[in-house]
Amino acid sequence: MRGLVVLALAIPLAAQTDEGGAIFRKHVAPMIQTKCVSCHSDKQRISGFSIGSREALLKGGNRGSALIPGSAKDSLLLAVLDHSHTVKMPPGATLPVETIAAVRRWIDLGAPWANDVPSAGEAIANDDRWAFQPIKRFAPPSKTANPIDAFLNVKLAEKNLRPSPAADRYTLIRRATFDLWGLPPTTAEVATFVNDQTPEAWNKLIDRLLASPRYGERWGRHWLDIVRYADSSGFSNDFERPNAWRYRDYVIRAFNTDKPFRDFIVEQIAGDELDAKDPEKLVATGFLRMGPWEQTAMSVAAITRQEWLDDVTHTTAATFLGITLECARCHDHKFDPIPTKDYYSIQAAFATTEFAERTAPFQPSETRVSFAEDRKQLQQLLASNKTSIGEYDAIVRKRFFEQNPQATANEIATAVRTKRLLTPEEFENFKVFQKREQLNAKSIERYSPLAYSVTSITKDPPETFILPVGNLMTPGAKVTPAVLQSANWSGNTSLPLTIEGRRLALARWIADPRNPLTYRTIVNRIWHNHFGQGIAGTPNDLGKMGKRPSHPELLDYLSTVFLDNKTGFKEMHRIIMTSEAYQRSSMSPDPEALAKLDPDHLLFSTFAPRRHEAEVIRDSILFAAGELSLDTEADTGGPGTYPEINSDIANQPVQIMGTLMPAYRPSPTPRLRHRRTIYTYQKRNLADPLIEVFNGPSLAESTAKRDATTIPTQAYALMNGKFVNDMALALAAKSAVTTDPLAELYSRAFQRPPTASERTLLSAHLAKRITYHSTHSATAPPSQPPLMRSITSELTGDSVMVREQDPPVAIQPNLQPHEVTPQVRALADLALVLLNSNEFLYRY
Asked: Which residues pair with 655 in a beta bridge?
């Protein structure tokens, strides 16, 4: 055999068979690049073995030579690939039969090698894997006031596409305010900006908007979309997460204080390992628990544990790296350079992590103004639950004693515990109160200084194995904590083997300025939220199957600027918003050319108009009506409050652990109900219908890009929904007491006066509606009887009615039509039209 090896090496490449070379190029080289080189490159050399060249194969590793040219049956390479050896490669996967056959034939033909196989880093140095390449420093291609325009103008010139002129100042202040606050400006703010013709006016406006707490609420919502923030766990029971709100407020604070992005990354992934004594960092790790998760008596703990590990592995990669790591859970990634081994190596960084509600004292920046009153109301509910449970205990005690006058105290206690003397209807009502006691006791924890957080285990570190096809029951090869080899720059991919420090090391690798995925991802997200689409159009997938960047040099340029600033987002906002591209009109000077040359608006020659997100619509309606709660500390932060939603949704019976979930009840006062949407309670299984119908974020999957569908139910929600009609009435009532109600309506809705033609139309319609309402009186809504809902009895299978518990505090209704004059009701009809208009619902 030694002679064969020497002979094969001596044969020049030109003399090797065409068939062998073709097999190498078509089958062997791609297999090595996608399945082997990440672990067995010249740099990595796991088991002392590299597959980076023919010579390396001949040399082999710890188990000797891997290749005997001319003899596939004697080659270790084929044995490990076809799994006839004790070592089976790739780990946890089986190569296709045709690939094994191709390798066998290639070896028998003398194993000709056309060119060296690329190393892990070299293998991704092509356009399909652009995001994994190091970020390059590009100089702007020309000298312009803003370098963004220099990059964009190159592509516009190539297409001979004329950009739009600058938008008018009224449009610009509305655009900027909606972008940075998620709210319209006031009429006074519009007037101040429009009348300020100094060169510094635009920069002053941006600085003012960035300095407001409204900025963190707006851009914090973008981040919460990505991490799937919710106040409940989802799945069948959807139990409350009483302290999750502290993570939401942490995110808002991070944006308002312009927390350096590197710190923002590390604190969320490993704040507890960074400084376990800092409450802020414990709260930050709520990121790791944001996904839906449930463990019940019927769940297998090992399976739900693995589900969390898979979830946190995938979510961390999607959030910070912009890649679909989940694809490598069952098999090597089919498109990106991510073997299954890498997936489980990163997962090993979380293997020592456990859930924990950790003591974390409240900080001065956290809102606690209404804690005492809110806790008191929950305590009243809890006391009511206990009283009702006691009444059913008394019923059982009385009935048992009547049937068994000589019963002992133990026998009576057993009867009371089992409740066997209750009727099916009584038993179902008892279960409702019993479950409410548990739920309300949990809800009171909202006001305790606890962080919805994690900790490290206190026992020996668990081992992590590759799970073929993601199956926990059939573990494959063991792996140790490590980072992605294809996005590594230091040559050292390993993470600590200790219990603590794994996540911290992973977080620092993600946050490292040399990590190309991290900073391309976040800059692309910022751009996306300003323009409605990213430079790369799939913000959660910068891999091969995602959309290629329309301006790769610009993306890298902005990434280097972001890195050089070493801050949060605010400077990036300034750079983007001071560009001509951001300030352009939505109207193209040549619409036909635009439709032909750039139908998807990838060249940013105009500012593409788009509908407001669901939360912006709701908050803007409240703002226009003068009902948005923003004035005091109690209006921001703290546990989520409950807006008014459609009664048919609120009152529907929802099962929970064999009984009924409490009916949805809005917060008692308008001030609580009308807080910004980001401060409302986010329940996974019961979304606000107004938010849901306008494409609100998924609370189960990461939402990197909001849809903007148009469906009939949106019109029903805005034109017929009780909330919008109530707000239209409030807007009308406030406008009616002014000297010019029509001008006031327009000022509150659009921050401008009506034009002459609009005023003529409005006045004519208003007169008609006044005539109508003068002859059609409004009556007070009837009082509502106690809410009764049905549940199927577990004892008999019959439908049983149960009564809903009365709220501890009476609900103060919004202003109603019967409380105002026909003139105000007529004005409300006009207000409703304005709240349904494109000018109100879109930004241009």
From this structure: 660
Q: Which of 59-68, 306-315, 441-450, 792-801 has the lowest mean pLDDT?
A: 792-801
Query: Strands 610-611, 478-479: parallel, antiparallel or unpaired by DSSP?
Result: unpaired
CB atoms within 10 A of CB 318: 22
Question: Residue 804 corresponds to which tokens in the numbers above?
Answer: 């809903």
Burial of 81 (0-12, 13-18, 19+ CB in 10 A): buried
456 DSSP β-pair partners: 353
Burial of residue 272 (number of CB atoms within 10 Å: 0-12, 13-18, 19+)? buried
Rounded to 5 degrees, φ, ψ at 5 are -60, -50
Nearest Cα neighbor of 582 from 539, 520, 527 is 527
d(CA 196, CA 148): 25
C-alpha 800/C-alpha 428 separation (Å) is 7
Q: Quick one: CA torsion of 465, 330, 521, 517, rounded to 10 degrees? A: 50
Quickly tell me which residue has 């009935």 as its tokens.
399
Q: Longest C-alpha distance within the chain, in Å?
A: 109
Which of 47-56, 374-383, 642-651, 805-814 is predicted with the least confidence, judged by mean pLDDT? 47-56
DSSP alpha helices (H): ranges in 483-613?
A: 502-511, 516-531, 552-565, 570-577, 580-583, 591-597
Q: Which token pair is 811?
A: 């609900």
Contacts of 712 (CB under 8 A, 6+ apart): none
Kindly give, in sequence order, each residue whose CB lies less than 8 Å from that of residue 822, ignoring residues fewer than 6 positions away: 770, 773, 774
Residue 293 DSSP code: -
Q: Which residues pair with 542 in a beta bridge?
A: none
Q: What is the pTM of this model?
A: 0.86
DSSP 240: B
Residue-wise pLDDT tens digits, 470-485:
889 989 999 999 999 8
What does DSSP assign to residue 47? G
Residue closest to 322 by CA, chosen among 336, 308, 332: 336
Cis previous bond, 666, omega within 30:
no
